[in-house]
UniProtKB/TrEMBL annotation:
It comes from Methylomagnum ishizawai. Substrate binds at R348. This is Alanine-glyoxylate transaminase / serine-glyoxylate transaminase / serine-pyruvate transaminase. InterPro entries: Aminotrans_V_dom, Aminotrans_V_PyrdxlP_BS, PyrdxlP-dep_Trfase, PyrdxlP-dep_Trfase_major, PyrdxlP-dep_Trfase_small, SP_NH2Trfase/AEP_transaminase. Keywords: Aminotransferase, Pyridoxal phosphate, Pyruvate, Transferase. PROSITE patterns: AA_TRANSFER_CLASS_5 (PS00595). The modification N6-(pyridoxal phosphate)lysine is found at K199. GO terms for biological process: glycine biosynthetic process, by transamination of glyoxylate. Belongs to the class-V pyridoxal-phosphate-dependent aminotransferase family. Its cofactor is pyridoxal 5'-phosphate. One of its GO terms (molecular function) is alanine-glyoxylate transaminase activity. It holds the Pfam family Aminotran_5.
Amino acid sequence: MTTIRSFNPPIRTLMGPGPSDVHPRILEAMARPTIGHLDPVFVGMMDEMKSLLHYAFRTRNELTLPVSAPGSAGMETCFVNLVEPGDKVIVCQNGVFGGRMKENVERSGATAIMVKDEWGKPVDPNKVAEALAAHPDAKIVAFVQAETSTGALSDAETITRLAHDQGCLVIVDAVTSLGGSPLEVDAWGIDAIYSGSQKCLSCAPGLSPVSFGPRAVEKIKARKTPCQSWFLDLSLVMNYWGGGTKRAYHHTAPINGLYGLHEALVMLQEEGVEHSWKRHTDMHEALKAGFEALGLSFVVPEGSRLPQLNSVTIPQGVDDAAVRGLLLKRYGLEIGAGLGDLAGKIWRVGLMGHGASAKNVVFCLTALEAVLSEMKAPIAAGVAVPAAQAVLAAKGY
């Protein structure tokens, strides 16, 4: 039998759609001694975690916690707790993750009314308004604020207002937006929202922050049927995550993972969430200047682009997989491929959390230009990095 030795991963620069590079402070936090999940010291950290999530989400919602699973479980937490059999839910789809919302609705025994927009475009509020008028019995509107499959940013404030005007709750996917784009849960009146630890928080994958407002809590309490998931049933989870020192056992929390998320949120608080939003935008502007100087074009229209997820078209005649393979092999640089209808047509380049830096902007442009030049791609050589550096200098970096 072959002896299997300890796994030592290579050092990579992660500039895909996630996970992002985990900050050394967070890695160090995750290596701290494991204690019990009902230890009074750990319970104290749980209370701090809720306060830190209140800050990140810009909310005072009591029902705010990290689900012990990745962002997909945060999505499911929202749907299985709020959607009941027979409900009608308006689901906005402009990429992969709106489609996953539809799956959650239907698996909850409800009907999904689809509002579809072209991949790469934001959700059209006018279409949402039309769907609400056509289906006055709808209970919920669900949409993705930051569509990771395309890099499109939708107007969460406007869509939420339209839903509330018709008496609907809203469920918002903020997996890629939390910490990287403006997000105001209380000011916009968002009823239920979920995110992930591995994007703009620069934490390891595996945790999903969620928050539920008063209207959502009322619907959960008024359910006529039990939540279809025992593990994600918030009426049970809150007995563990509720306030105070007395906690009821629900599951063994991922203790060291929660250390990491706590540290990530402390770092967000230290930087200031508004400054984090600005830094992501500044780095996007520099990368954009470099990409456009190379001759690459963006998929998403100006004004609807996620700064932390940049989707650009692949030059004609260039082999998508070959470029990404060389970037990984030679430079240890990971960028993302397109999904669904955009597979083989675009690259998705992430500037998330710790990775949203001037160093990464210049490194990515340098490596990509070198590989594309070797492949004789139709690009402009020698101009991308100076273009990016001019933007960085103008912004004080």
